Amino acid sequence: MPTMFSPAPYNILIRSTNWIGDAVMTTPAIRTIRRNFPKARITLLALPWVADVFTACPHIDRIFIYDKQGRHQGLRGKLRLAAELRAEQYDLAILLQNAFEAALITFIARIPTRAGYTTDGRGLLLTHGVRKHREIAQKHQVHYYQEMLEGLSLRRGPDELELFPDPTAIQAADELLAQALQGKTGPIIGLNPSAAYGPAKRWPSAKYAALARRIAAATGGLIVIFGTKADQEAAAEITAAAGEQVLNLTGRTNLSQAIACIARCQVFVTNDSGLMHVAAALNTPLVAVFGSTDHIATGPASERAAVIRHSLPCSPCLKTHCPQGHLRCMELVSVDEVKKAAMALL
């Protein structure tokens, strides 16, 4: 048992990250925590839209919802959250979220042992701070969380992503897909034209539409479109191109159901997004189109993934909108090269 935490903590709080993709990339770290503390009661503090990533995770005993837009909103809400956490009498908080607020809330909650990176000016709020090494920026983000745990003297476990679809969601997904597959014998191809971070991460919807038309014609399969209500315009363009071979799920599923449907896809074509990391964790073969973001740090951590990108002097810029106004990093990615990569994975 690690000597840094002696006696061994029994009641542990993990502060989750705030985005779906980041949450998926913490799954090896959460497994590492469980392996180091097999007898502990582990609670995950997570925002509502991230919680479904961990609904069926066997390494977590409870999910505590941080209702940031409801009862925990604003300063009064944060104080209420701290009071609720204090009542749970946690003896250790491990902060995977790298933000000042995460450390402040656990400090106010009087959790006696608080561990995490010392960045964002929060070192004085932590009892067990870990310095972030400069070299970590050249590695995949999975290592960012794992190396923080190593800095806390925990025994590092495997770096592979993992995701556990919710059984109820699996049943709902199977029924949905079975109904759409009637008369179709080809594969299920998932398309994800969305990216919450901003338009600089989105391959044009017209190219997704052309891809859908060509893959549907080549395979006779079912094209399943993923996304939120904000992606319905792109989904309509794709549906118009591929016709009856499309199942449009934009705005129709929660995250658990989307995860279960992605697990059933034979290939998944996506922008750099949370669902890209979901597919990687599920070991679903995937093609990821990259432009403005760093494919080394946040690419799909999977051996069954193909990354399509064109190297430009301005890429990756890490911006939500193209600073040059041309979005060439995405426009240069052709439908033919994405189709070729997807067909190779099929």
Automatic annotation (TrEMBL):
Q: Which UniProt keywords apply?
A: Glycosyltransferase, Transferase
Superkingdom is: Bacteria
Keyword check for Hydrolase: no
The transmembrane segments are none
InterPro entries per the UniProt record, alphabetical: Glyco_trans_9 (IPR002201), LPS_LOS_Heptosyltrfase (IPR051199), RfaF (IPR011910)
EC number, UniProt record: 2.4.99.24
Task: Give the family this protein belongs to, as stated in its UniProt record.
Answer: Belongs to the glycosyltransferase 9 family.
Q: What is this protein called?
A: lipopolysaccharide heptosyltransferase II
Q: Which organism is it from?
A: Candidatus Electronema aureum
